Amino acid sequence: MVEPLLSTDRLVKHFGGLLATDDVSIDVRPGEIHALIGPNGAGKTTLVGQLTGLLAPDSGTIRFAGRDITRLPTHARVRLGLGRSFQITSVLREFSALDNVALAVQAHQGHSFRFLADVRRDRALRTAAQGGLDAVGLGARAAMPAAALSHGEQRQLEIAMALAGEPKLLLLDEPTAGMGVEESQRMVETLRGLKRSCGMLLIEHDMDAVFALADRITVLVYGRVLFCGTPDEIRRHPEVRQAYLGEDGA
Amino acid sequence: MQPRNMIALLLLALLAVLPLLTQAFDQRYLLSVGTRIVIWSIAAVSLNMILGYGGLVSFGHAAFFGIGGYAVGILSAEGIQNGWLQWPVALAASMLWAALVGALSLRTRGVYFIMITLAFAQLVYYLASGLEGYGGDDGLNISRSRFAGLLDLRDKATFYWLCFALLCGTLWFCGRLANSRFGTVLRGARANELRMTALGFPVFRYRLVACVIAGAFGGLAGILIANEGAYVSPAMMSWVKSGDLIVIVVLGGIGALFGPLYGAIVFFALEETLKPFLDLLHKGWGEYWQIVFGPLLVLIALHARGGMASLLRRRDG
Amino acid sequence: MEYLLIQVLNGVQLGLLMFLLAAGLTLTFGIMDLVNLAHGSLYMIGAYLAWTFITWTDSFLLGALLALPATFIVGVILEVVVVRRLYGRDHLDQVLATFGLILFFNDLVRMVWGPAGKSIAVPAFLSHTVQILPGVSYPAYRFALIVVGLLVALLLAWLVARTRLGMLIRAGASNRRMIAALGVNIELLFSLVFGLGAVFACLAGLMTAPISSVKIGMGDDILILAFVIIVIGGIGSIKGAFVAAMVVGQIDIFGRAFLPELLKSFLSPASASAAAPAISQVLIYVLMAGVLVWRPTGLFGQRP
Question: What is the DSSP string of A53-103?
Fold first, then answer.
């Protein structure tokens, strides 16, 4: 049995009287795509917040790559290889697509207290950034300002930025949110292509994307893990069908 | 070479030969206007580093005039007139001040940042006016820095050329900085601070270093102002001067390399031309030139935020 | 002891004056999210208008009663012509535009009223002193300032806490979008609030005039103090502005009244009397820095 890349152990988080995360233990193995699904208010965002370090859990632990990271700040987790993309598109709009990725590469290469050398002539930076854009299919868009990219392309750009940190694990918060069918399919293709290079924890509403990508699926309801299994097991599981898939149960 | 840089280089070439021109046409006064333009350009480039590239609206930049100037002034009053000693001390004091103010004020955001930088500048202002031993409110006459055998700062043309050379150096450094890894992080944090943090950049540290760098150039301008008039006073760092610096940076074009130079030229040219022009319309009106200048600033704030640099850019197509 | 009491009262009086100025500023700040550097200009214009009306009517009260609505009108015109266009803009735009307004008003006032300062005499009916404690007398005019200042502070507290306007103001400070949802005429509300701020500035200006003088740029330095006050108190908070104004008033008076004596023990008398006011000003800014380091949004400001 391989040691999981990321695991939570009995994570609990209250907001006042509301139990947003209730005794959650999940894990993601290296190279695996693990999807997290659940209705609105199931506590997915709260869970992601704790994984990235924006929220501190009340109790329980988070382990990543063999270390306890429960108390580490966000940027330290990023350094360890825990990358993320945002639920809301978050790119530097005035910067070109290439510059966006180059910045991410720069962040990964250590400190940036270099004052005189021109980044535009920094071969190592440009090549790595261009490679990142190529990997998500944006190679031809390198010179465009991020603001001029379509919504779908901006999300792809985000993935490229997250990948620039050479993450061991990628937290993807609704990567296909707000996308049309075609754009969603492109995103699914991109993510499938990246599968071998890193593990992913995928939070997603689009069930087609989830079933197309996930190796395992965890269903979260009212902050609690209802069930965890393969896509086939999820499809067959009566309680899941009733509680979550409901009338559109496959 | 892009056309808009051509305009900047033309301007610089003109400034380089200004002492020859003013001598040829016997316009001594113009040389002193030119000197002020050059010194204020250095200060404005410094402000542009944090305001333009960093997006940090500092309303206390004139404090560096005071710190750079008073460091020279106090040393001079104490009998130390060697520029090789005075200038490094003045620069170090400015950088130290920038580090202190930056460390405290970068914890705040938005309006609070504007106000706390303003308050710190006022603090220096009142400290200087309380220095009874060094002239208090009235200021202090000093003798100019000495660079034995090398330069005589009392010579107007020599002093001008020194300021001009320092401006060129400042512009060169700022241009390199803007496109360096450091500058990119600074500009990125201006565009989207949260994103930069999520990428793993400790934004605070980068901004603090930017403040210290800007402080050095601000202090340099202060040293030059003190040497220009052989005089320092609290008035050189009144908050209105900080406002003037912001005006210059915005007039020229925020975050544009040569913007501060354009801004300083336009600022002083407006002052020097509005006065005689209004006097021409009606004797005595020249005194009230700010009745025209003030609304002009309002219009610029409302309609022309890109400043001169963007006008030039637009014309290039 | 008597000296101490009188100085504390002077501090209260100064604090209340600055509160009048800060109140208008914190309202426009909190509700319209506007950095208004030109608030000090309204203070100056209010004082000059008061001088004109008082000279004209030969009555302090009548002149003051005319100056207040006149400054209100100036404020509303300013809001409609320029300030309104600055809402929702970058703070840098607001700083630049209102800085331009200061330059404009300073030269305009110089043109209209001339470069020399004006003085307003203490009204005859307040030129005596009052016994505040047996054996302790205090100038009646300064005492009246304290009374008027406190009354206005109470009025403002009532306005914000109890009235419909106040409800809108509080809603605006915490949730700008909500006002629009309530179907309120925002443009009118903003004009009124700005005009109200102008009235308070005028009141502060005309009440200060008999103690100091009416001059060009009189609003520039006190404006910075007013900013310091609202930043210490927390932007948008009337309560915060009041508390901070009181503290700043006491520090200022302490610096003028007691510090010179303290400093004389280790400085020459001349240096001591020059350094003391400077040190009290420095103390105010140190206080502000301290508060912001401890609470980056002021004592009573809303946390982001």
Answer: TSS--SEEEEEETTEE-TT--HHHHHHHTEEEE-SS----TTSBHHHHHHH
Chain C residue with the nearest C-alpha to that of B299: C97
Let me know: does C38 contact C29? Beta carbons within 8 Å.
Answer: no
- Tell me the mean pLDDT in the region A199-216: 89
Q: For residue B205, what is the nearest residue in chain A, using CA coordinates?
A: A113
The CATH T-level fold of domain C14-127+138-294 is: ABC transporter involved in vitamin B12 uptake, BtuC (1.10.3470)
Q: How is residue B123 written in tokens?
A: 């603090």
Prediction pTM value: 0.87
CB contact under 8 A, C107 and B290: yes
What are the tens digits of pLDDT across the range C117-142? 898 988 888 888 888 788 788 899 99
Minimum Cα–Cα distance from C97: chain B residue = B298
| Confidence at residue A84, expressed as pLDDT on a 0 to 100 scale | 80
Domains of chain B with bracketed CATH: 3-316 (1.10.3470)
Q: What is the pLDDT of residue B257?
A: 92
Q: What is the ipTM of this complex?
A: 0.89
Q: Which pair of tokens denotes residue C15?
A: 């604090």
Residue A248 pLDDT greater than 50, yes or no: no
Closest partner residue to C111 (CB to CB) among B243, B291, B302 is B291
Residues of A near B (Cβ–Cβ under 8 Å) read 74-75, 78-79, 84, 86, 90-95, 99, 102-104, 106-108, 112-120, 122, 161, 165
Q: Do the beta carbons of residue C255 and residue C277 sit within 8 Å? A: yes
Which domains can be identified in chain A, with CATH numbers?
1-81+167-250 (3.40.50.300), 93-166 (no CATH)
Find where tokens 């320029």 sit. Answer: C82
| Residues C20 and C152 sit within 8 Å (Cβ to Cβ) | yes
Q: From the list B180, B196, B197, which residue is nearest A115 (CB)?
A: B180
Across the interface, of A86, A99, A118, the residue whose CB is closest to B180 is A118
Tell whether B221 is within 8 A of chain C (Cβ): no
Contact B294 C101 (CB under 8 A): yes
Residue A110: how many CA atoms within 13 Å on its side-chain side?
2
Side-chain-side CA neighbours of residue C242 (13 Å)? 12
Q: What is the pLDDT of residues B151-210, one digit of tens each?
A: 888 899 999 999 999 999 999 999 999 999 999 999 999 988 888 887 888 899 999 999
**Cα distance between residue C184 and residue C190, in whole Å:** 11
Confidence of residue B59 (pLDDT cuts 50, 70, 90): very high
Q: Which residues share a beta bridge with A68?
A: A63
A146-160 pLDDT per residue, tens: 999 988 888 889 889
